[in-house]
Design brief:
By secondary structure, this protein is an alpha+beta fold. The chain contains 2 helices and 7 strands. It has one domain. It has a 3-stranded antiparallel β-sheet with strand order 1-6-7. Strand 6 and strand 7 form a beta hairpin. The longest helix is centred in the last third of the chain and has 12 residues.
């Protein structure tokens, strides 16, 4: 399989890095401004006040993790680190 075909099979799954709980579309977090929303629909940015949340609390295990740590990338069915993804993308972009 070519690198470009592998890149097309990229999948991002969202789950807690501590307990692997996967938020549902109906899951809600609360901002200090009072807004209730699904933080993963906006990349951690409150749609009312615009605050960018860098840390997200799991609604199941209640542990805090960096918001970006919730996004797990799979390439070709294998979990890949952000660094591996970037390296593959650079290789694909080169002539």
């Amino acid at each position: 399989m070519s690198d470009s075909a592998t890149a097309r099979k990229r999948e991002v799954r969202i789950y807690c890095p501590k307990c692997a709980w996967e938020p549902l579309p109906a899951s809600r977090w609360f901002c200090q401004c009072g807004c209730s929303w699904n933080t993963f629909e906006t990349g951690g940015v409150c749609p009312d006040c615009g605050k960018a949340w860098e840390v997200t609390q799991c609604l199941t295990c209640h542990n805090y993790s960096a918001h970006r740590a919730w996004y797990h990338e799979f390439l070709g069915g294998e979990l890949r680190s952000s660094e591996e993804i970037e390296e593959i993308q650079r290789a694909i972009a080169q002539p």
